[in-house]
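Subject: for your reference before the review

Hello V.,

The reviewers asked for a structural picture of the protein, and I figured it would be easier to keep everything in one thread rather than splitting it across files. Below is the amino acid sequence we used in the manuscript, unchanged from the supplementary table.
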Amino acid sequence: MLRIYGKPVEIHEKYYEVPYQEYRADGTLKQDGTEDFSSQRLKTLKKKYVWTWNGEKRNKGGHRWFECQELVTFNGSTKELKTVLGIKYPDAKLIELR
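And here is what came back from the structure prediction:
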């Protein structure tokens, strides 16, 4: 199970309500909703920048030129995340999480 979280919707006295999308292992959307987090628990979620390479663009030195697409906040495995990102960025020849 992989959940990708968005930005907090409402800030309560000591809790944040955060929207999420939950995905199956094959990368298809299972459900979406919101989840409550304390500020301490919210800091434990994994965050990675998504970098993609289109298969052609190179810098002056001939190395691949990656483009930063977004910052993803998630829980689950990075393998599952790459599956979902492969669907989201179908033209990318290579996806890296940094």
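For the response letter, the relevant points are probably these. The chain has one domain: 2-97. The first helix runs from residue 39 to 42.

Happy to draft the paragraph if you're swamped.

O.
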